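HOLO CASE FILE
Compound: BJW
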Amino acid sequence: MPTIDDPEVQAAGALARARCVGVLTGAGISAESGIPTFRQSMEGLWATFDPETLATPAAFARDPALVSRWYDERRRGCLAAVPNAGHRALARLERELDARSGSLTILTQNVDGLHQRAGSQRVVELHGSITVWRCTRTGAEYRDLEQPLREYPRRSDAGGLLRPGVVWFGEALPPEALAAADRLATTCDTFLSIGTSAAVYPAAGFVSLASAHGATTIEVNRDPTPLSTAVTWSIRGCAGEVLPRLVERAFGAEVPSSGTRSSHGT
Ligand code: BJW
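Model generated. C-alpha coordinates follow.
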Protein backbone atom coordinates (compact mmCIF):
# COMPACT_ATOMS: atom_id res chain seq x y z
CA MET A 1 0.00 0.00 0.00
CA PRO A 2 1.62 3.33 -1.02
CA THR A 3 2.17 5.83 1.77
CA ILE A 4 1.88 9.61 1.63
CA ASP A 5 5.66 10.02 1.33
CA ASP A 6 5.79 7.58 -1.59
CA PRO A 7 7.39 9.48 -4.53
CA GLU A 8 4.69 8.19 -6.87
CA VAL A 9 1.93 9.61 -4.65
CA GLN A 10 3.76 12.93 -4.39
CA ALA A 11 4.53 13.09 -8.12
CA ALA A 12 0.89 12.31 -9.01
CA GLY A 13 -0.21 15.11 -6.66
CA ALA A 14 2.16 17.52 -8.39
CA LEU A 15 0.78 16.51 -11.81
CA ALA A 16 -2.82 16.95 -10.63
CA ARG A 17 -2.00 20.53 -9.52
CA ALA A 18 0.23 21.38 -12.51
CA ARG A 19 -0.67 23.97 -15.15
CA CYS A 20 2.46 24.02 -17.32
CA VAL A 21 4.36 20.77 -17.65
CA GLY A 22 7.68 20.19 -19.41
CA VAL A 23 8.87 16.66 -20.15
CA LEU A 24 12.34 15.55 -21.25
CA THR A 25 12.38 12.05 -22.71
CA GLY A 26 15.22 9.75 -23.67
CA ALA A 27 15.74 6.32 -25.19
CA GLY A 28 14.38 4.52 -22.09
CA ILE A 29 10.78 5.45 -22.90
CA SER A 30 11.04 3.65 -26.24
CA ALA A 31 12.80 0.58 -24.82
CA GLU A 32 9.45 -1.11 -24.18
CA SER A 33 8.63 -0.61 -27.88
CA GLY A 34 11.65 -2.78 -28.68
CA ILE A 35 14.02 0.04 -29.69
CA PRO A 36 17.44 -0.47 -28.05
CA THR A 37 18.52 2.43 -25.84
CA PHE A 38 21.42 4.46 -27.14
CA ARG A 39 23.95 3.16 -24.66
CA GLN A 40 22.73 -0.43 -24.69
CA SER A 41 24.88 -2.45 -27.09
CA MET A 42 23.19 -3.63 -30.26
CA GLU A 43 23.23 -7.19 -31.51
CA GLY A 44 25.00 -8.95 -34.38
CA LEU A 45 27.22 -6.86 -36.63
CA TRP A 46 26.78 -3.79 -34.44
CA ALA A 47 27.76 -5.39 -31.11
CA THR A 48 31.40 -4.42 -31.60
CA PHE A 49 30.71 -0.73 -32.37
CA ASP A 50 30.45 2.02 -29.79
CA PRO A 51 27.38 4.16 -30.69
CA GLU A 52 29.16 7.27 -29.40
CA THR A 53 31.84 6.83 -32.07
CA LEU A 54 29.31 6.28 -34.88
CA ALA A 55 27.12 9.29 -34.03
CA THR A 56 29.66 11.88 -35.18
CA PRO A 57 30.34 13.88 -38.34
CA ALA A 58 33.90 12.47 -38.30
CA ALA A 59 32.62 8.87 -38.46
CA PHE A 60 30.38 9.72 -41.42
CA ALA A 61 33.25 11.47 -43.22
CA ARG A 62 35.55 8.49 -42.57
CA ASP A 63 33.12 5.68 -43.45
CA PRO A 64 29.79 6.92 -44.84
CA ALA A 65 28.75 3.42 -45.93
CA LEU A 66 29.10 1.99 -42.41
CA VAL A 67 27.37 4.90 -40.69
CA SER A 68 24.54 4.95 -43.28
CA ARG A 69 23.95 1.24 -42.86
CA TRP A 70 23.80 1.61 -39.05
CA TYR A 71 21.29 4.44 -39.28
CA ASP A 72 19.23 2.67 -41.93
CA GLU A 73 18.89 -0.44 -39.74
CA ARG A 74 17.84 1.74 -36.82
CA ARG A 75 15.47 3.75 -39.07
CA ARG A 76 13.70 0.57 -40.14
CA GLY A 77 13.47 -0.58 -36.51
CA CYS A 78 11.85 2.73 -35.54
CA LEU A 79 9.35 2.60 -38.42
CA ALA A 80 8.37 -0.96 -37.45
CA ALA A 81 7.95 -0.10 -33.74
CA VAL A 82 4.67 1.02 -32.15
CA PRO A 83 4.19 3.43 -29.23
CA ASN A 84 3.93 1.79 -25.81
CA ALA A 85 1.95 2.51 -22.63
CA GLY A 86 4.50 5.16 -21.56
CA HIS A 87 4.10 7.18 -24.78
CA ARG A 88 0.32 6.84 -24.55
CA ALA A 89 0.26 7.98 -20.90
CA LEU A 90 2.09 11.20 -21.88
CA ALA A 91 -0.37 11.80 -24.74
CA ARG A 92 -3.22 11.37 -22.26
CA LEU A 93 -1.54 13.70 -19.75
CA GLU A 94 -1.39 16.37 -22.46
CA ARG A 95 -5.13 15.93 -23.15
CA GLU A 96 -5.97 16.15 -19.43
CA LEU A 97 -3.97 19.36 -19.03
CA ASP A 98 -5.44 20.85 -22.24
CA ALA A 99 -8.94 20.16 -20.86
CA ARG A 100 -8.02 22.20 -17.75
CA SER A 101 -6.50 25.11 -19.73
CA GLY A 102 -3.02 23.85 -18.93
CA SER A 103 -0.32 22.61 -21.28
CA LEU A 104 2.29 19.92 -21.69
CA THR A 105 5.26 19.99 -24.03
CA ILE A 106 7.64 17.11 -24.66
CA LEU A 107 11.30 17.78 -25.35
CA THR A 108 12.48 14.51 -26.78
CA GLN A 109 16.03 13.39 -27.43
CA ASN A 110 14.58 10.45 -29.33
CA VAL A 111 14.66 10.36 -33.11
CA ASP A 112 11.97 7.66 -33.49
CA GLY A 113 8.77 9.72 -33.85
CA LEU A 114 6.86 7.53 -31.36
CA HIS A 115 5.50 10.40 -29.23
CA GLN A 116 3.80 11.93 -32.25
CA ARG A 117 2.45 8.53 -33.30
CA ALA A 118 1.03 8.05 -29.76
CA GLY A 119 -0.98 11.27 -30.20
CA SER A 120 1.20 13.86 -28.44
CA GLN A 121 0.69 17.22 -30.17
CA ARG A 122 3.45 19.38 -28.69
CA VAL A 123 6.73 17.61 -29.30
CA VAL A 124 10.10 19.30 -29.76
CA GLU A 125 12.69 17.04 -31.40
CA LEU A 126 15.99 18.12 -29.83
CA HIS A 127 18.12 15.60 -31.75
CA GLY A 128 16.19 15.53 -35.03
CA SER A 129 14.52 12.62 -36.76
CA ILE A 130 15.91 9.34 -38.10
CA THR A 131 13.29 9.13 -40.86
CA VAL A 132 14.16 12.44 -42.54
CA TRP A 133 17.47 12.34 -44.42
CA ARG A 134 19.09 15.23 -46.25
CA CYS A 135 21.49 15.77 -49.09
CA THR A 136 24.89 16.93 -47.86
CA ARG A 137 25.33 18.85 -51.14
CA THR A 138 21.98 20.68 -51.54
CA GLY A 139 20.24 20.30 -48.17
CA ALA A 140 17.17 18.73 -49.91
CA GLU A 141 15.11 16.57 -47.51
CA TYR A 142 14.03 12.98 -48.20
CA ARG A 143 11.18 11.68 -46.02
CA ASP A 144 9.92 8.42 -47.51
CA LEU A 145 13.06 6.62 -48.51
CA GLU A 146 12.88 3.00 -49.65
CA GLN A 147 13.40 0.25 -47.05
CA PRO A 148 16.16 -0.79 -46.97
CA LEU A 149 18.11 1.96 -48.68
CA ARG A 150 19.13 0.84 -52.17
CA GLU A 151 22.82 1.63 -51.54
CA TYR A 152 25.23 2.56 -48.74
CA PRO A 153 25.89 5.38 -48.69
CA ARG A 154 22.69 6.47 -50.46
CA ARG A 155 23.10 9.28 -52.98
CA SER A 156 20.56 12.03 -53.62
CA ASP A 157 19.17 12.99 -57.03
CA ALA A 158 21.89 15.66 -57.11
CA GLY A 159 24.57 13.03 -56.51
CA GLY A 160 25.36 14.17 -52.95
CA LEU A 161 25.56 11.81 -49.99
CA LEU A 162 22.38 11.51 -47.92
CA ARG A 163 22.83 11.72 -44.16
CA PRO A 164 20.25 11.07 -41.43
CA GLY A 165 18.53 14.19 -40.09
CA VAL A 166 19.81 13.65 -36.56
CA VAL A 167 22.09 15.78 -34.40
CA TRP A 168 25.52 14.25 -34.00
CA PHE A 169 28.04 14.99 -31.24
CA GLY A 170 29.67 18.35 -31.87
CA GLU A 171 26.74 19.61 -33.97
CA ALA A 172 24.41 22.37 -32.84
CA LEU A 173 20.84 21.50 -31.89
CA PRO A 174 18.16 23.14 -34.11
CA PRO A 175 18.03 26.76 -32.83
CA GLU A 176 14.21 26.85 -32.70
CA ALA A 177 14.17 23.61 -30.65
CA LEU A 178 16.77 25.03 -28.24
CA ALA A 179 14.80 28.27 -27.84
CA ALA A 180 11.54 26.37 -27.19
CA ALA A 181 13.27 24.16 -24.62
CA ASP A 182 14.78 27.14 -22.87
CA ARG A 183 11.42 28.93 -22.72
CA LEU A 184 9.69 25.84 -21.38
CA ALA A 185 12.29 25.06 -18.70
CA THR A 186 12.21 28.61 -17.39
CA THR A 187 8.40 28.91 -17.25
CA CYS A 188 6.95 25.47 -16.41
CA ASP A 189 5.78 24.62 -12.90
CA THR A 190 6.50 20.88 -13.21
CA PHE A 191 9.26 19.14 -15.16
CA LEU A 192 9.63 15.41 -15.78
CA SER A 193 12.76 13.58 -16.93
CA ILE A 194 11.92 10.14 -18.31
CA GLY A 195 14.19 7.32 -19.47
CA THR A 196 17.33 9.33 -20.07
CA SER A 197 20.81 8.72 -18.67
CA ALA A 198 21.14 12.54 -18.48
CA ALA A 199 24.63 12.20 -19.93
CA VAL A 200 24.24 14.39 -23.02
CA TYR A 201 24.15 18.19 -23.07
CA PRO A 202 22.49 20.58 -23.54
CA ALA A 203 19.41 18.30 -23.08
CA ALA A 204 20.42 17.06 -19.61
CA GLY A 205 20.77 20.66 -18.41
CA PHE A 206 17.07 21.49 -18.84
CA VAL A 207 16.14 19.64 -15.65
CA SER A 208 18.38 21.78 -13.45
CA LEU A 209 17.32 24.89 -15.37
CA ALA A 210 13.66 24.11 -14.58
CA SER A 211 14.55 23.41 -10.97
CA ALA A 212 16.47 26.70 -10.69
CA HIS A 213 13.31 28.47 -11.92
CA GLY A 214 11.17 26.90 -9.22
CA ALA A 215 9.66 23.87 -10.97
CA THR A 216 8.92 20.63 -9.14
CA THR A 217 11.13 18.04 -10.86
CA ILE A 218 10.30 14.36 -11.25
CA GLU A 219 12.48 11.60 -12.65
CA VAL A 220 11.20 8.26 -13.94
CA ASN A 221 14.01 5.85 -14.77
CA ARG A 222 14.71 2.14 -14.50
CA ASP A 223 18.20 2.89 -13.13
CA PRO A 224 19.79 5.66 -11.04
CA THR A 225 21.23 8.64 -12.97
CA PRO A 226 23.13 11.81 -11.99
CA LEU A 227 19.70 13.47 -11.64
CA SER A 228 18.24 10.97 -9.18
CA THR A 229 19.47 12.76 -6.08
CA ALA A 230 18.87 16.26 -7.49
CA VAL A 231 15.19 16.03 -8.48
CA THR A 232 12.26 16.64 -6.13
CA TRP A 233 10.85 13.13 -6.66
CA SER A 234 12.76 10.20 -8.14
CA ILE A 235 10.76 7.15 -9.20
CA ARG A 236 12.66 3.96 -10.04
CA GLY A 237 10.83 1.81 -12.59
CA CYS A 238 9.98 1.24 -16.23
CA ALA A 239 8.27 4.14 -17.98
CA GLY A 240 5.60 1.91 -19.53
CA GLU A 241 4.48 0.84 -16.05
CA VAL A 242 5.10 3.96 -13.94
CA LEU A 243 3.63 6.62 -16.28
CA PRO A 244 0.15 5.06 -16.72
CA ARG A 245 -0.03 4.61 -12.91
CA LEU A 246 0.99 8.24 -12.29
CA VAL A 247 -1.54 9.66 -14.76
CA GLU A 248 -4.33 7.44 -13.45
CA ARG A 249 -3.51 8.41 -9.86
CA ALA A 250 -3.60 12.10 -10.85
CA PHE A 251 -6.70 12.09 -13.09
CA GLY A 252 -8.52 8.79 -12.53
CA ALA A 253 -9.18 6.06 -15.04
CA GLU A 254 -9.53 7.32 -18.59
CA VAL A 255 -13.09 7.65 -19.81
CA PRO A 256 -13.10 6.59 -23.45
CA SER A 257 -14.80 9.09 -25.73
CA SER A 258 -15.39 9.11 -29.48
CA GLY A 259 -12.72 11.83 -29.77
CA THR A 260 -10.10 9.81 -27.89
CA ARG A 261 -7.40 8.32 -30.07
CA SER A 262 -6.81 4.60 -30.18
CA SER A 263 -4.92 3.40 -27.11
CA HIS A 264 -3.24 0.67 -29.11
CA GLY A 265 -0.58 2.77 -30.68
CA THR A 266 -1.78 2.85 -34.24
C1 BJW B 1 14.66 3.13 -18.88
C2 BJW B 1 14.00 2.02 -19.45
C3 BJW B 1 12.61 1.93 -19.25
C4 BJW B 1 16.09 1.91 -19.96
N1 BJW B 1 11.96 2.86 -18.54
N2 BJW B 1 14.00 4.03 -18.17
C5 BJW B 1 28.56 20.13 -21.42
C6 BJW B 1 29.37 19.29 -20.69
C7 BJW B 1 30.05 18.23 -21.33
C8 BJW B 1 29.94 18.02 -22.68
C9 BJW B 1 29.13 18.85 -23.40
C10 BJW B 1 28.48 19.90 -22.78
N3 BJW B 1 27.76 20.55 -23.73
C11 BJW B 1 27.94 19.94 -24.92
C12 BJW B 1 28.79 18.90 -24.75
C13 BJW B 1 29.26 17.95 -25.81
C14 BJW B 1 28.25 16.89 -26.18
C15 BJW B 1 27.93 16.07 -24.95
O1 BJW B 1 26.93 16.21 -24.30
N4 BJW B 1 28.79 15.11 -24.64
C16 BJW B 1 28.56 14.22 -23.50
C17 BJW B 1 28.74 12.77 -23.95
C18 BJW B 1 29.46 14.61 -22.36
N5 BJW B 1 27.04 17.49 -26.75
C19 BJW B 1 26.96 17.78 -28.02
O2 BJW B 1 27.89 17.58 -28.80
C20 BJW B 1 25.67 18.41 -28.53
N6 BJW B 1 25.99 19.54 -29.33
C21 BJW B 1 26.40 20.68 -28.81
O3 BJW B 1 26.46 20.89 -27.62
O4 BJW B 1 26.73 21.60 -29.77
C22 BJW B 1 27.31 22.86 -29.36
C23 BJW B 1 27.47 23.65 -30.63
C24 BJW B 1 27.01 24.96 -30.66
C25 BJW B 1 27.16 25.72 -31.83
C26 BJW B 1 27.79 25.16 -32.94
C27 BJW B 1 28.25 23.86 -32.92
C28 BJW B 1 28.09 23.10 -31.74
C29 BJW B 1 24.93 17.46 -29.47
C30 BJW B 1 24.46 16.23 -28.79
C31 BJW B 1 23.79 15.30 -29.81
C32 BJW B 1 23.50 13.94 -29.22
N7 BJW B 1 23.14 13.07 -30.26
C33 BJW B 1 22.80 11.70 -29.95
C34 BJW B 1 22.74 10.90 -31.28
C35 BJW B 1 21.45 11.24 -32.03
C36 BJW B 1 21.30 10.38 -33.23
C37 BJW B 1 21.20 8.92 -32.91
O5 BJW B 1 20.24 8.47 -32.26
O6 BJW B 1 22.11 8.19 -33.34
O7 BJW B 1 21.55 11.63 -29.27
S1 BJW B 1 23.92 10.93 -28.79
C38 BJW B 1 22.71 9.97 -27.96
O8 BJW B 1 22.59 10.35 -26.58
C39 BJW B 1 21.38 10.32 -28.64
C40 BJW B 1 20.46 10.42 -27.46
O9 BJW B 1 19.34 11.23 -27.79
C41 BJW B 1 21.33 10.99 -26.38
C42 BJW B 1 20.83 10.76 -25.00
O10 BJW B 1 20.77 9.39 -24.72
P1 BJW B 1 19.58 8.85 -23.82
O11 BJW B 1 18.30 9.08 -24.51
O12 BJW B 1 19.72 9.37 -22.46
O13 BJW B 1 19.83 7.26 -23.89
P2 BJW B 1 20.75 6.35 -22.95
O14 BJW B 1 20.90 5.05 -23.69
O15 BJW B 1 21.99 7.03 -22.57
O16 BJW B 1 19.93 6.16 -21.61
C43 BJW B 1 18.71 5.42 -21.55
C44 BJW B 1 18.22 5.52 -20.10
O17 BJW B 1 16.93 4.89 -20.04
C45 BJW B 1 19.10 4.83 -19.08
O18 BJW B 1 19.22 5.67 -17.93
C46 BJW B 1 18.31 3.56 -18.70
O19 BJW B 1 18.51 3.19 -17.36
C47 BJW B 1 16.88 4.04 -18.90
N8 BJW B 1 15.88 2.97 -19.23
N9 BJW B 1 14.85 1.22 -20.10
C48 BJW B 1 12.62 3.87 -18.00
N10 BJW B 1 11.83 0.84 -19.76
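CASE NOTES: The longest strand covers residues 128-135. Residues 34 and 80 are 10 Å apart (CA to CA).
CLOSED: yes
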